[in-house]
Known about the structure:
Elements: E1 6-7, E2 10-11, H1 14-17, H2 21-64, E3 72-73, E4 77-80, E5 88-93, E6 100-104, E7 108-112, E8 119-124, E9 132-137, E10 144-149, E11 153-164, E12 171-177, E13 184-186, E14 194-202, E15 205-212, E16 217-226, E17 233-242, E18 249-254, E19 260-265, E20 269-274, E21 282-288, E22 297-302, E23 309-313, E24 318-325, E25 331-339, E26 346-351, E27 357-362, E28 366-371, E29 376-382, E30 390-393, E31 399-403, E32 408-415, H3 423-427, E33 442-443, E34 454-455, H4 458-489, H5 492-505, H6 510-527, H7 529-552, H8 555-558, H9 570-592, H10 597-603, H11 613-637, H12 641-649, H13 654-682, H14 686-691, H15 709-716, H16 725-759
Helix pairs in contact: 2-16, 4-11, 4-13, 5-11, 6-11, 7-9, 11-13, 12-13, 13-16, 15-16
Amino acid sequence: MSSNATSAGRPISARELLPDAEARTxxxxxxxxxxxxxxxxxxxxxxxVVISLALIFVFLFTEIVPLLRxxxxxxxxxYQVPGTDAPTLHIVSERYQEAAVRFAEDGTVSFFDPTDxxxxxxxxxxxxxxxxxxxxxxxxxxxxxxFGLDNGRVALAEHDYDLTYPDDVxxxxxxxxxxVEDSIITIDDQGQPLNVIGVQRGDPGIGIxxxxxxGRLLLTRFTSQRxxxxxxxxxxxxxxxxPAPPAAPTRILLDITMRNLxxxxxxxxxxxxxxxxxxxxxxxxSRQVIEGVGNSVTAMEFLLGTVSIIVxxxxxxxxxxxxxxxxxxxxxxxxIREFDQHPGAITSIFPEYSRKGFVVGDAAGHVGVHYGTxxxxxxxxxxxxxxxxxxxxxxxxxxxxxxxxxxxxxxASLWNRHPESSIKSLWRKVWYEGRSSRxxxxxxxxxxDEFEPKFSLIPLSVGTLKAAFYAMLFAMPLAIFGAIYxxxxxxxxxxGLVKPTIEVMEALPTVILGFLAGLWMAPFVENHLPAVFSxxxxxxxxxxxxxxxxxxxxxxxxxxxxxxxxAAILIPLVxxxxxxxxTLSPLIEVWFFDGSMRQWxxxxxxxxxxxxxxxxxxAMGFAVIPxxxxxxxxxxxxxxxxxTQGSLALGATPWxxxxxxxxxxxxxxxxxxxxxxxxxxxGETMIVLMATGNSPVVNFNIFEGMRTLSANIAxxxxxxxxxxxxxxxxxxxxxxxxxxxxxxxxIAEVVRQRLRAKYSSL
Length: 762
C-alpha cells in the first residue's frame, strides 16, 4: 500500500494538505488576537503592580502628611474682660472650652465662656485687708492659684468644674474652692510683703515658697493626713527658712516631689536648692541662663511632670533646662535645648496639660507655640500691638487665650496635633528627661501621665538591619554553596530529593519558626553556649578531615559510592558532631568558663539576652534559605552545558569550571537570590516578634535582642489611637520599611542587569 494519501484513487500532493489562503488568513488573525491579548494581559498586570505600589505609597504618605504640619492659630475673638477692671493675673480654660476663669488683682474670680465672653459666675476672694504684690500658679492640672499679699500672708484658691448630663446634654458648672481649710495662710510672722511666691501640689501635699521684702526665703509645707476615724483629709502645716538666694528672685518654682526648688533672678541666673530635708536645705547649683548685661529671667515654668524648666528672658530667649546628675550623684542645671528667639521680652509661659509643649507670650505682642522633646518652634505670631500679660492653652491643646492690658480677652482656636515629631526627634539623638546624655530611644507609652514619649526611628531601623544581617550571615553561605553543589555536583536522583525538600521548607509558617525559636531554641542556646561555638569550629574541621580521608581511600572503595552521592556520607558526620558538641558543652563550661559561659560573658562586660540576634539569625536563616537556595540553584543549573563542557574539554577541573565559568555566568541569578532573600529578611515579622525580646537598642551585639520596624508595627498598631501622633508614626515606620525594600530591590535589579550584560557574551 502506498505511503502517500490518496483520494478517489488519486495521490494527494503536499500542497493540497496545506490550508488554503483563507484558512491561513484566519489562523494569522487568531494568532494575532492571542498575541495582542497576551501582551495586553501582561502589560496590564505589570502596570497594575506599579499602580498598586504607587497607591500603597500614596496611602502611607497621606497618613504621614499631618506630621509635617506646624501649628496654626485661627482668627481671634476679642471681648471685654468679665468682672472688674483690675489687672488680669491669670486666665485658664477647662477641657471642653465651655468655661474659663479669670483671676484679677483685686481678688475677683470671673467664670466666663471663652468663645464669646459670656459671664457664667463671679466670686470674690476676701484678702482680709491685704493687697496683692505677687501671684503664682501650680501645675495647670492642679488648678491652684496663689496670691502673695503685702502682709506676709498668701491667699490660696482652686477653680474646679462639675460635669453633669441633664437631658443627655453636657453641662459644665464652675466653682471656686480652697485647697486647705483656711483661704488666707500666714507665711511670714513678721508681716513682710511676699514679693515673689511659688506654689505646688504633689503627693506629699502642698508647698508654698515665698521671698519676702527683707530678703528671706520661706518654705511652708502642708502635709496631707487622712483621719483614721472620719476618713477626712486635713493638712498639717510646717514652716522653714531656707538659705537666701544670691540675688533678688523674679520667679520661684517648686516641683511635685517637694524636693527640688528652682529660683530665677534679676541677674539672669537660675539657682537649684535641694530641699528634700528642708531643715538642711542646700543651694546645689547656680547657672547663668540669660546672657548679657542687664538681662534677667522674666518668666519660668515647669513642663508637665515638673522635671523640665522653660526659662524665658528679657532678651526674648526661650530655653529648656533640667537637672542632670554628675559623677557625685548631685543634680546640675543643664541646658538641654533652645527655641527660636522672640522679638520681645518673655512675659508669660504656660505649659500644656498632657504633653511636653508650652505656649509663650512676649512684650512685643507675639504668641509662640513650642514643644520640648522635638525642640520645635511651631509658631510665632503677632496677635497684639501691646505687650501680652498672660497666655493660656486649653487642656486639649486646641485653643488659646491671652490678655494684653487693653481690657480685653482674646480667644483663638489652635491646631497643634503632632508637635512630638520632627527630623531631630526621629533621626537624631535627643536628650530626654531623666537621662544623663542624648540617645536614640523608642518608648511610645508608659503608665504615668507625665511620661515623655520617645519616638526615635533609629533603634527600629538599626534593629531591622541587624536582624537581616545576622539572618543573611547564617543563610547565605549555606544556601549558595548548597545550591552550587546541588546543581553542579549532585546526582540527578539525589537532586530530585534535596531540591524539593528544601523548597518545601518555605511553606513552613514563620509563626511556627518564631514559636520554636522563642520557646525552645533560645533556652537551648543559652544552656549550651559552648556547643553552639563548638559546632561552628569543629564541623568545618571534621568535614575537611572527612574529605581528606575520603580522598586517601583506595579507588575501589570510593567507587562503591555512585558519583554525585558523596554528600550523603556527611549526614552521619553532621549528626555526630552536633551530638558530641552538646555532650561536651557542660564540660567545656567547667574547664574554660568557671561553670557558666553566660556568666563569663557578663563578667567580661558582654550583655547576654536569652532572646537575641544569634537566635533570630538561626531561625530567620531557616526561613530565608529556601528562597536563596531555590533561585541560586536554578541559576547555576541553567548555565549552558556547552560552556561547562568546553571548559572541561580544555583541561579545567570541575572546581575550576565552577569558579571560572559557572559562577560568573550564574552571578546575576545568584545576586538576585541574595537580594530577594535580604528583602525577605528585612520584612520578616513573626520570627523577630517572638524571638528577639523586642528591645529597641542600637547596637550589633549578637547576644542582645532588637526591635524591627515590622515587629514594632505589629505590636503597637492595635493599641495606637487612630489619628494620634503614635498612630501616624507607625505609618511612617511602614513607609521607611517600604523604602528599605524598594531601594534594595532597585539596587538588586540594577546590579543584576549589569552582571547580565557583562557575562552574557560567555
